Structure formats: structure tokens, C-alpha cells
Amino acid sequence: MSETLRVLVVSHAHPSVSLGGGEIASYNLHKGLNTLPDVQSVYLARAAHPVPRHGTTALMSLRRSSDEILFHADQYDHFYMSNTNTDEIRRDLLRFVRDFNPQVVHFHHLLGLGVETLYAIREALPDSAIVLTFHEYLAICNNDGQMVKRGTGKLCNEASPIDCHACYPEIPPARFLKRERFIRNMLELADAFVAPSEFLARRYMEWGIGADRLHVIENGLAIQPVAPPRELTGPTPRRNRFAFFGQVTPFKGVDVLIDAVSRVPEDVWGEDTRLMIFGGNLEKQPAEFRERIEKLIAEAGSRVRFHGAYQNGEIPRLMQSVDWVVMPSIWWENSPIVIQEGLHHRRPIICSNIGGMAEKVRDGQDGLHFRAGSAEDLADRFTEVLRDPSLWDELHQSIRQPGNHLDCAGDHMALYAGVLDSKRQVASGAGADAQLSQAS
After folding, report:
1. Structural contact between residues 415 and 215, judged by C-beta atoms closer than 8 angstroms
2. Which residue ranges form the domains of the chain, and what is each CATH number?
3. Would the pLDDT of 437 be above 70?
4. 137: which of 202, 266, 272, 406 lies 20 to 30 Å off by Cα?
């Protein structure tokens, strides 16, 4: 009888609290692993303010499943990716980890948890495999891991203490060098790294992560019914419903999108074409950005409808009213779940021509590219698809299907097996060397 493989999947937040791509990807992996024979996965997610603690312990039950646990951690230093409350890591987190005794610990993000969490688990479980999935460039870039120049929004291709100091003049280069060395040394404790895109993998290899330790595995999308194409009505029906899904932040390029909509000629746009914005958190953005968005929406008038935040489970229903998905991010992105959802529901995607977006959306097959940050070029794409009714049908037929969470779990299991086997071989070799040394 084969031994059950125990896997602890660690996330920086639970998708029921924070609906980001990393949270959904980690949760889907956890669910996928638990469908496999002889595998037991437990999901541990960080919680913080405004989620209240349940008592004196930092560990909390989510009260929805026995294999989903919350770890409350509020004392986080963003610059060093550091959790200063190491007492609760040792007292509460490690107690749970030692009781479960996983052979594999898979981190999706260290955000909020801190690199000290990785260090503590390595110290407590020296024989276990530790895997870390990168979802952006946070270890490389202090600007929220976006690799975009602070203030100007210009794309950044590499990081160095001098370059980073230029973005943050108030922080000396020596401190950026200290940050880099500290984070690099902590990441060395992991056995393997996962990148959901080739683009992100190359960036981390250029930064110094060994290619032999980096594995490209796409995030898995939870299996759900495919939304049928929108039913067309009226005397001259068109595929003219465009939609944005995601957080309304400066990095997501929503201002570029709304600006582009206003630039499309009236005789092309018509009275029945709409841009639908499904997204929240605008109220949390800087005042200057909020004011710009409000001004652009006012200028666009009836062309734009703001529908607010949504839950992931609503996606199939929302997709039924959509013809095109637009992804106008002005940063590189990695493997946006919005792109996977659009591909799954066979909605052609209009996206920026950079990073993980350009990799995931084949221009002319899965959708169309436009020059990142250019409202003019995006307006040209809108004009192109509105003038050519056959284009949607052609793209709809050639869209490729993204991987699901079951396939993703299988790919990760192969990685876990390889890492554990390598660790056993190293341990056996070290043991044999020690015996030879004693004999001589």
C-alpha cells in the first residue's frame, strides 16, 4: 500500500477574502491535489486586518473545511519581504506544521507571511521539499513587484541598486543591495521554483535563479461549464460587447482602455456598442488616479458602464453578456487568470503586446495585440473588430483551450516527486560519504 503524500499549500491570502490571481491559482492547486489518489493537501492562507483574530493564537479555522487554515500575520515589512513577528511563527505556525508533517510545502507568495516563514519551515522540516511559485517580480522589484518605473510608468527591464535608487531616491543604493542579498539568501532555502509563464521564468533566471531549479507550470483553471456565445438580436447584430475584468488599479491600464473607447469614431462605435468594466478597489487607489478615471468615464458617457466588483463564481454568467475580453495592463503581467477565463469561455482577447499577456494570447489566433499603454493603438483594434464582423468568428474558432486544475495538479506532482527523489539521493550520498570517512 503506497504512502499518502502530504502537501501543505501556503498562500498570502484566501480567495474568499482576496480575489487575486495568486490566491485563486493556489486554491485551485490545493483542490486539484486532493482529487489525486494517495495525496492529502492542506491549504494554509495568511489573514490580516481587517480580518479579526479569533483568540490568542495566530492560527484560525475558516469554518468551511477542515483542510483550510488561516494564519494571522499583520507585522510585515514590505521592503525586506520580512515578517517581524517571528514568535508567532515559531509558537503557532510551526506547531501546526510539525503536527501535519508535510513532505512538500508549496508557497504561493511570501507576501505578508515574510521570508522568515520559509526559513522556519526549512529549519523544522529539513527533509521536506520546499517549492515556491512566483506570481510577479516582488523579490526583484520594490515597486509592488511590477517592474515599472515609479512615477513615469515606464517599463523596467532589470533591477540593480543604482536603478532602484533612481526610482526611490529616498532609499540609498546600499539599502537596496542589502535587500537583494537578504532576499536571495532566503530564497536559496527553497528546493525548486515554479513560474507560470516562460517570460517570468526568464526574468528570474536573468536575476540569478538557476535554470535547473526553475520549472514552468501554468496555473490551473477550475473546471466549469463554457458560457455559450452571446445571443445576437436586432436588425444589424454585431459582436460589440467589450469587457474588462480585474482590479481597477493604475497598473491594469483601465485609464488607457476608457481613453481608447472615447477615440473610436462615432460611425464605427454606434449607439449599441458598450465597454463593461467589472472590477473593484477604485476607492483604494491614489486620488490622482481616481480623478483621472472619473473624468475619462464622464467623457466616454454611455459608451462605458461600470458594474463594480464581482465574485469568481459569477464569471460564467457574466461571460454570457460579453463578446470580447480586454486586458490593457501597462506592466508585464505573468499569467493573468482573466486571460485563462477568456480562453476557456472562447472569448477573443484584446491585450497589451508585452510579457505574459503576449505569451498567452497568440496574436491573430486567440485574440489581438495592441501597443502597451497606447490608447490610439487600442482604439484602432476596436475599430478593426467593429468594422470586420467575420473576425470574431475566425478567432473564436482558433482559440486554444487553457489547462485545468487537474492537469496542473498532475504536473506539480511530477515536480514534487523529482525534488523528493533528488533530496533522497543527496542524503544517501552524504550518508555513504560519512560511513567511508568513519571507516578510514
Report:
1. yes
2. 5-222+405-439 (3.40.50.2000), 241-398 (3.40.50.2000)
3. no
4. 406
